[in-house]
Design a protein that fits this description.
With 173 residues, the chain is α/β, with parallel strands linked by helices. Helix content is 33%, strand content 23%. The strands form three sheets. It has a seven-stranded mixed β-sheet with strand order 5-2-1-6-7-11-10, sandwiched between helices. Belongs to the peptidase C56 family.
């Protein structure tokens, strides 16, 4: 019997709507379970363009060690997410375990704050290029960059390339 693959997705207000929903829908198409975690469980978070998403769990209480991968959408939410010690703990754990971590656009801020980018090839929106480099990342202007367990992308138009690589990395493991 095949084990269910589970992906944890971190959210806060002003997430980039497409960068949350496109990955979730693609993962659903693959039969991969995705759960949303925010500061509070059962909280309605509103995206930059008004599309809501309700968290199922609080990232303060969730057993994140049960998840096979982590997804962090961009928008302005990453600037809030990186301020929570629990989020930093989740990101560091996933990285230490070699589990896939997908981040797009401004979500690289969270990985920079977690201190896991040193020597890693990554991409992001140009707006945080300097932050990624200052965190030790090797920034590349590509639609998707995969360096071990870290899968990064620049913007919504890159989502098809990003999710193809994220799913390939997730299923490979």
């Amino acid at each position: 019997m095949k084990r269910e693959i589970k992906v944890l997705c971190l959210i806060d207000h002003y997430f980039e709507d497409l960068e949350l929903w496109y990955p979730i829908l693609r993962l659903m198409e693959e039969g991969i379970a995705t759960h949303l975690a925010g500061e509070k469980a059962n909280e309605k978070y509103i995206g930059k363009y008004g599309i809501p998403a309700t968290s199922e769990y609080s990232f303060m209480d969730i057993n994140y060690k049960d998840y096979d991968a982590l997804l962090i959408p961009g928008g302005w939410a990453p600037d809030k997410l990186r301020r929570y010690p629990e989020v930093i703990e989740i990101v560091r754990y996933m990285n230490e375990q070699g589990r896939p971590i997908g981040h797009i656009c401004h979500a690289g801020w969270v990985l920079a704050s977690a201190g896991i980018l040193k020597g890693k090839q990554v991409t992001s929106t140009r707006g945080i290029k300097d932050d990624m480099i200052n965190a030790g990342g090797i920034w590349m202007d590509e639609p998707v960059v995969v360096d071990g367990n870290i899968i990064s992308s620049r913007k919504p138009l890159d989502l098809p390339f990003y999710m193809k690589e994220f799913i390939r990395t997730l299923i490979k493991d």
